Amino acid sequence: MTTRHTGQARRSNVASRVATTVRDALKSEPRLKRSAVALSARIAGTAAAAVADLPEEARATLTRREPELITRIRGLVEAFGETARPAHIALDFGREVEPRKGAGVGTVVSEAEGDAALHELAVARRLEDWAGEVAGASALLRDYGIARSSLHRWQQNGDVIALLKGAKKHVFPVDQFIDSRPAKGISDVMAIITDPRVAWLWLSRANPVLGGRKPIDLLKRDRVSEVVEAARDYFTQP
Q1: pLDDT tens digits along 120-158
Q2: Which of 183, 184, 207, 225 could share a disulfide with 220, CB 3.0–4.6 Å?
Q3: Is residue 113 classed exposed, middle or buried when 0-12, 13-18 and 19+ CB atoms within 10 A define those classes?
Q4: Domain boundaries, the chain
Q5: Could you tell me which residues come within 8 angstroms of residue 71 by beta carbon, excluding any fewer than 6 positions away?
Q6: 0.90 cut: is pTM over it?
Q7: What is the pLDDT of residues 33-67, one digit of tens each?
Q8: Tell me, what's the pLDDT at 168?
């Protein structure tokens, strides 16, 4: 038997043993159907065999980047669960393309002139249009029983995101709270994304790295390490 075939047989044996162990362990899990147990076991076996074949240095690298690895694996699995989309989209471009020649780069203007032009073109949006439902301290106390003293302490510690509305008033995105407390991990995200508006915009939008989920939804499910690792990938310079 060649070395290549020997290696394949060894990987197959490792994958089979791990899959059997995982399958036996998952049989008592009431939420998993038989097909889900079998698939999970095969995935675990394949992953274990692949890790076993890696050089020690590569395994050490994976260990250091374990949160990122777990996030990517989860995102890959969840992506396959999304509604299947057509692989190709038929587009009718016609048979002939009309040649055109652009006007080229326009007149170069100063930074001040550029800012003034952008200001004229910019469309004002209400805070609620992009941040979702927000509430001030009084409304949070009335509707959710969140004491002003707690809210102030969370704000001072960076545990909650406060958005400036108008000249002085701060409001708080309601979606960041669970059981009348801010979701765990917001302070970790704020340590990476220091601007509250940018932080909330990132937290409240679906993220492809996180399987199309909103980071704030994952924080409310205690999946803090995945969200923090994704934030580092987005906002930390290499």
Answers
A1: 766 667 888 899 999 999 999 999 999 999 999 999 999
A2: 183
A3: exposed
A4: 3-81, 127-235
A5: 209, 210, 226, 229, 230
A6: no
A7: 777 777 887 888 788 878 888 788 877 777 777 77
A8: 84
Alpha carbon distance 200, 161 (integer Å): 7
Name the range with the highest mean pLDDT among 2-6, 28-32, 148-152.
Answer: 148-152
CATH of domain 127-235: 1.10.1660
Contact yes or no for 172/159 (Cβ under 8 A): no
The span from the CA of 139 to the CA of 179, in Å, is: 16
Q: Name the residue among 86, 98, 71, 69 with its Cα closest to residue 224.
A: 71
Amino acid at 211: G
How far apart CA 52 and CA 18 sit, in angstroms, is 11
First and final C-alpha spacing in the chain: 45
**Closest to 235 measured CA to CA, from 206, 198, 207:** 198
The token pair at 109 is: 């203007």
Q: Strand runs (DSSP E) across the chain, as ranges?
A: 134-135, 163-165, 169-173, 177-178, 181-182
